[in-house]
Every structure is written in structure tokens, then in C-alpha cells.
Amino acid sequence: MTTSNGAPNDPRSSGAAAVETGHIRGVTHRLSVIVPVYNERNTLPELLERVRAQSLSWNGAPVSLEIIVVDDCSNDGGVDFLFGETGQSTFADVRVLRHARNRGKGAAIRTGLERVTGDVVLIQDADLEYNPDDYAALVAPILAGQSRVVYGSRFLALGPLGRPTGMHPTNWVANKILSWTASILFFRSITDEATCYKVFATSVLPSLNLRCERFEFCPEVTSKVLRRGLRVIEVPIRYHGRGGNEGKKIRWPDAFHAWFTLVRYWLRD
Ligand SMILES: Nc1nc2c(ncn2[C@@H]2O[C@H](COP(=O)(O)OP(=O)(O)OP(=O)(O)O)[C@@H](O)[C@H]2O)c(=O)[nH]1
Ligand SMILES: [Mg+2]
What we know:
- By secondary structure, the protein is of the alpha/beta class.
- The protein has helices at residues 11-25, 44-52, 105-113, 135-143, 169-186, 217-227, 252-267; strands spanning 29-37, 56-58, 61-71, 94-98, 120-123, 149-153, 198-201, 232-236.
- It has one domain (2-267): Spore Coat Polysaccharide Biosynthesis Protein SpsA, Chain A (Alpha-Beta Complex).
- The longest helix is centred in the middle third of the chain and has 18 residues, at 169-186.
- The model is unreliable at 1-24 (pLDDT under 50).
């Protein structure tokens, strides 16, 4: 089986070996992309096209791509194109997991994490706010063994007061407060705590013992990773924010919840 980029991509063929040996020996690598989806009919087809088009390599060897879509009981028909008439998956390189009821982004990510076979995991929202062309830069520090956690920062290239394209001023304030809080609590520089582009060596994840259900995935992961003293490398990424009328679901109360989640896991794991 091959992906659109020509890389071997059958999870049964080399996945287990990659988990066991890929990161350590630097021989073969597989990137597992988890896409949490809730009612993203307008953006999911193009997003998946752009993810599937990624052709990654490391030290001359292809990095295979595993795409795991977790549909959180969408009711807009937006995932129907992923299934053929007989219910089989439309794309050989896209696995679709479904929740029987809507549980939230965090729960969807945890469902995806249970099934990954890659040695590197990346979280990809189902909208078009982030750009999959940034994958190569995001996975490089992990494949090079420089760190086991990488965050794509929307602010790094803009300076302390820069506001990324399309980011509403209130969201900017919330993002800044969350990043400053994480930095102060852990004496580390984090410029974008709430970024969707979080990338991990898969081996890191079981120890985090994640409990998140909704949007508190980001602060729970950030607190736990920093609490464990893991190095987080930030790389600059592109971003084009969307508004509520374009399907953005996060709301102000989620920012408060995120702040309390950061503090909660700083106090106690
Ligand atoms: N599985 C699941 N995904 C959700 C839910 N609500 C939102 N999402 C997904 O989470 C992603 C982010 O949602 P947005 O509304 O764009 O919010 P955002 O500000 O980009 O959120 P963050 O990336 O968490 O900072 C999208 O892919 C949504 O489809 C939900 O209830 N369940
Ligand atoms: Mg989004």
C-alpha cells in the first residue's frame, strides 16, 4: 500500500517495528496525524487533501504518514465522504474512528492516541487555520533527537505583541495569558501554549496519563510535559485564524477552563 506521496503506509506492515525501533535507531519513521473532527464539513475535505499531499523524508528515507480521523459524532454529514457505498474507507491511508456521542476534542485525541502506530504523533485540527506544509519543520527536532516535544508557535516570528492573521483580539489576549501563565509557573519560555500543532515522540504520551475531555487537552499536556522537565522546542508556523461564523467552536469559558487546568496540573499531577 502506498500513500499519495509514495511512502509505504500499511500500519500492519512496519508500524510496530517503527514504534519499537524507529525513534531509537533512526531507521524508519512514521508520523501519525490525529485529526479531531466535530462538524467540519466545509474544511475537512481540503484539509485531508493537504495532509495527504505531505511528502516527508528523513536522512534520505521516507517518513510514512498515518492519518487518524476521530469523528466526535458529527451531525453535519461532513465525514460521509470518507466512506464508500459499502461502508469501507474511501482513502486507504486514512483511518476513521467514531464516537457514539459527542465527547469533545480532548476525548477525540485520546481515542486517536490509543490507536497510533507511528513513532511521532502530531495533532491536526480539522479546520484550515494551520498549514500542513509546516510538518517537516515540526517533526525535524524530534527525528534529530533534539527533543521529544515540539510546539508550532504562531507568535515566534511576530515578536511579543504581534497578532497572527485572523486571530481575534480577544483570542490573542487569551492566548497570551495562557502562554505567560505556563512560562511563569514553570520558569520556561513558552510563546504559544494553546497551539494546535503539538508534536510528540510517541513514547512520551503514555506517561502523561491524559484525562482531558474538551479543550483542556492543550493545558493538560503543557503542564504535565513541563512538570516532567521535558524540553519543548518551539518552531515558527503559519496561521490563518477563523471566526465563530466560520465554524470556530472554542469560547471564552474554554479559556478560563484552560487557565485553571494549567494551574491544576502545576499544583498536582
Ligand atoms: N472531536 C471533537 N472535536 C472538536 C469538538 N469541538 C471542536 N473540535 C475540533 O477541534 C478543533 C479545534 O476547534 P476550533 O473551534 O477551531 O478551536 P481552536 O481555537 O482552533 O481550538 P484549539 O486548536 O484547541 O486551540 C477542530 O478540528 C474542531 O473540529 C468536539 O466537541 N469534539
Ligand atoms: Mg481551529
